[in-house]
Amino acid sequence: MPAPDRLTNLELPLYDGYPYWNTCVVGGVYHITLLPPVPEPMLLEATQRQALVNRLPVCLVLGEHDARYVDAEGVMILSHAAPRGGFLFANKLWPGLRGDPSSQDFLLRELRLATLINWQREGEFGLFGDLTKGGRPATAEEKARLLGCQPDGTPRGLQQCGRCGDWAGVCIESHGVLAGDVMTVHCRCENHHRCARCGGLLWVHRLNANYYDPKDRSIWHVPGFCAFEHRCPREQPGPRTRRSGMQIVQCDAP
Hints:
- The protein is an alpha+beta fold.
- It has helices spanning 4-11, 40-54, 104-120, 140-146, and strands at 20-26, 29-34, 58-63, 66-70, 76-79, 87-90, 97-98, 136-137, 158-160, 167-172, 181-185, 209-213, 218-222, 240-243, 246-249.
- A six-stranded mixed sheet has the order 5-4-3-1-2-6, sandwiched between helices.
- It is elongated.
């Protein structure tokens, strides 16, 4: 008999408009990208590239029992269980490939996806990132080394980046319910989340991570769904490779 959590998982809704990408933007929030029905090797190549450019884990879903999970480093794992449940979004993250969005197959899959998303939106709901900011309680050694501030009021453990001017490092939160927790802070140079279509940054700061604002001397967390606010500039003509009706955009992140 399957474990109770397995039974619960099987009861969660599954979108069946294969093939598509299911991108984990932040825990419980996923983005669905419909893909053209092209040969599997092409989809595998495009999936790894998408994960490496977005720096977000993505699953290539080919069927209910046929999925390829790719982490943000491009490592792929075969699975017999497609991702289920979560809050779904669409048309927010642009793919690095294109099919024919006017085809009958695409339009039908898009309609079913919109129906599922609209069903999820019935009633009120809120989206939250990691409320812990990725922190953890500080050890005695960390408290001795990191508690307190530098002369200018910046938390101990943070250093100013000579390139972008932001602060980065490991420090201890001094405000709110997370006071006393160890936090990792990133500067803008460490932001590696890019759009697979235009190559621009998905957000000013690194997603699902923290940055320090010297104006209010606070550590702010950036939830992954901030990427949904990205807008590509007007598309410029560039090199493309056409394969069986699919275009793979040559987007190389700096």
